[in-house]
Every structure is written in C-alpha cells, then in structure tokens.
Amino acid sequence: GNAPPGVDPEAFSWFQAVDADHSGYISVKELKQALVNSNWSTFNDETCTLMINMFDKSRSGRIDVYGFSALLRFIQQWRSLFQQYDRDQSGSISFNELQQAFTQMGYNLSPQFSQLLLARYGQRSSNPSIQLDRFIHICMQLQSTTDAFREKDTALLGNVRLSYEDFLTMVVTRMI
Q: Coiled coil: which residue ranges (predicted)?
C-alpha cells in the first residue's frame, strides 16, 4: 500500500519492514532490532524505551506509523548532531568530544561529570566512548532533568534547596 498522508514514503516502507508481527505498531523489541550504531551494535533497550515512550501518544508501549515517522526524524536530527561532535569521524564520541558537545549545547559540566557518564554509558575499553544510542539517551535525560531543575531554580542561581522527596519526585516524574 501507499504511505498514509503526512508520512514519508521511506519511513512507511521501513515501518512495514520493522513491524515484524504485522500488528500495525512497533514495539521496543522491534525498534531495537531495526536501529544500529556505527559499530553495528543494536540500540540499547533503555534508549529504545525512552524513544518509544516519547512518541507513544496512546501510552500503550508501542508506536504507530505516525509515531515511527516522527521518531525517525528525531533520530536523524540526533545523528546529525552526533556526527558534528564526532570530530575525528570515529563513529563514537570520546571524552574530549563529549566535553565539547556539552559546552556547545550550553551545559557547564565538569570533566568529572563527563567521566562519570563515560563510565556509566560508554563502551568498556581503555579509551571509553559513547555510541549514538547512548548519546541520545544522555542528552534526553540531561534535558529533562535540566528542565526540572530550572522549574525550581526560578532565580537562575544554579542551585536549589529542596527536600529529599521533592528531589525524588522531580527525578521520577522526569523519567521519560
């Protein structure tokens, strides 16, 4: 069949290929099987779940062809940004590239924090780096938690005072 109105024909074609069970929806499992990093590793489960949840209007844990089409545009935008920060064109983002990316995105984060992210999300090696899927994951979480922090930091001082439960509420409600 033809692509529905407002859906890119290429996205529609890919949707049909990814929808392995022909349900008319893409699940996290199907999405994971469809997306690969530059090193041919599949996208991480957590990242796929975050992205499905972002485009799942019905809160069913899966997306239709419209959500999938929007998700592909979203990933392409992140891929372009990722490639811009991957200065050595290695297909992954190193510590220095991650630091530069954060700075250019307007985040004033310490090298220790970037090192922590590399240890948590990077590939285990002597020179850890971040693949596209984890870069998307980190940036989505960073944006979400930054938004939550800014809601509390109304004077834009860069610090807030809040109770432990307020902190937990802030984190849990921002987990996409």
A: none
How far is Cα 106 from Cα 160, in angstroms, rounded to an integer?
Answer: 19
The residue among 57, 68, 1 whose CA lies nearest residue 28 is 68
> Which pLDDT value is given to residue 176?
52
3.40.50.700, 1.10.238.10, 3.40.30.10, 3.30.360.10: which CATH number matches 1-85?
Answer: 1.10.238.10
The CA distance from 35 to 135, in Å, is: 14
Q: What is the pLDDT of residues 123-138, one digit of tens each?
A: 887 888 999 999 999 9
Q: Are 78 and 137 in contact (CB under 8 A)?
A: no
Tokens of 43: 């996208």
- How is residue 29 written in tokens? 């499992």
pTM of the model: 0.84
